[in-house]
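Before relying on records like the one below, remember that each one covers exactly one chain. Contacts with other chains, cofactors or solvent are not represented anywhere in the record.
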Amino acid sequence: MSPRPASLKVRALQWLAQREHSRSELRDKLLRLLARPAVWVPGNGEGGGAPDDDDTAAGDAAGAAEPAAEVETLLQWLESRGYLSQDRFIESRVHARQSRFGNLRIERELQQHGVVLDADTRQALRRSELQRAGEVWRKKYGAPAPDAAGRLRQMRFLAGRGFSAEVVRQVLNGADDGSDD
């Protein structure tokens, strides 16, 4: 038995049930879903199947704005019902990433999703960055490097995880006393 195509609303709710999404991420997924050829979407008035050559040119010009408007309406509906929340997305993404990554990496990832951290969350991450970097370093290495090459390797590792240069220096110098700035 082949799976029945789902409406946009059902598909969006399925994605949101799996994990939190940012508005821009969900918009992109829904627009890609609509852009697939021969996708049946209930309520679009089409009979399905491949479009005729005559329909293609007119459909491309007139239908380009219609899917975007339909997706925007659905996103507004999801937000008004509480299914889509930027605050929940930020909270879940920060919670999932903070034990392994530094502030720079977390903020960059959120920016890619079109989301910016609020001041309180940013401050909380800053306060805990030294401790988190120390834990990541201890888990990976556990002991100071015996030579300069090893020290550089450890520095690159922490910097690659998105920890600031000052925090990396403090961790490697053993200044893991919790002071920041």
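Confidence is low (pLDDT under 50) at residues 45-62, 175-181.
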